């Protein structure tokens, strides 16, 4: 015989299920993130932050702010109606602003830390070694470092001093000071006063370094004067204008390339640059190679000419690039001449290739460059030019080049044209007879 209860679940099971649903709904209501709950949590965190005096409490506040931020991102908060005016309240934005403000206050409350002092010291060390100082500036740097080291020694009861006045010595002393601060075991809660005073001393060092006179603080004339550039100019000639050009001429006469190269590096004047380069053409000092080679790589013709006068074979690879193709004929002519003057046999083939250039002036320059190179491998190409080129000036240059090579075979080839119809070819060929 069946009981009516068997037709459905037990009554107590229904009650249990209904009770679970009720508890779930009640929990959801209690844990729902609302504008009001977030506002209360931010207010509580702010109050705790205001009263906080130790790093552990600040860490707790930071953890609370992290939790609030996570809940704020996940919360389903009301948004302003799109139809409202632009200045309608946005609860999420206002809460985010309060959260950001509390984080700023938290950072302001933290520290100071020993690591902050070390960071400032290391930056000062880099400034000292990476900066070019004047004599007065270097003296100021020495004084500033010594003052800072005294402060470190006093506050840490350590013996930190500089041994010597060389910039490397100063940097080494600061490195030692940074180690002393780092190894002192300073606690941001217990040693706040010490850390603050060390930080102030380090920041004063930074200010003193910034105030010290750097080389770049000087005018061009002051820089040159400090390096003796004007010492060669007699007092009665110091009124000449410009005095810099007077100094360059005297240095050239005395054979002093270093001051002239210093002027070339320092002056920001087309007039002075042009005249200094002319001086270097006449002097052709080996000391000028690096600086002039750098300028020549910009395909400037005057530096290329100077490289030819210097005669350093290190320039040939660069100059070979300048004679490829049929670009700037003026640059090619200057470069071919320079290659001839340098005299490297590695240039024979690149120069001989320019005997086929479209421009007759380039072909003529190539022929004369082969004569300066003096390589006997150029005899046959020059003979072909004498026999076949349709420009008499190019043929004359080939005859001149054969005379420069000067071997019996080269002279025999040139001599064959002693009765040439072109006077300029004939004049060069007769020299070989």
State which percent range the strand residues make up: under 5%
Rg over CA atoms, rounded to whole Å, is 42 Å
Structural class: mainly alpha
The counted number of beta strands is: 0
Give the biggest sheet. Answer: none
Q: CATH H-level name of the largest domain... which superfamily?
A: Leucine-rich Repeat Variant
CATH class of the largest domain: Mainly Alpha
Tell me roughly what share of residues is in helical segments: 55-70%
The overall pLDDT, averaged over residues, is 88
CATH topology descriptor of the largest domain: Leucine-rich Repeat Variant
How many structural domains can be distinguished in the coordinates?
A: 3
Order of helices and strands: HHHHHHHHHHHHHHHHHHHHHH
Q: N-to-C terminal Cα separation, in Å?
A: 149 Å
Cα shape:
elongated
Q: Regions with pLDDT < 50 over 5+ consecutive residues?
A: 1-6, 22-30
Number of helices: 22
In short:
This protein is mainly α.
Describe this structure in words.
The protein is built from 22 helices and no strands. The protein folds into three domains: 77 residues, no CATH class; 104 residues, no CATH class; 130 residues, Leucine-rich Repeat Variant (Alpha Horseshoe). The protein has 433 residues and is mainly alpha-helical. The radius of gyration is 42 Å and the shape is elongated. The longest helix is centred in the middle third of the chain and has 22 residues. Helix 10 runs antiparallel to helix 11 and helix 13 runs antiparallel to helix 14.
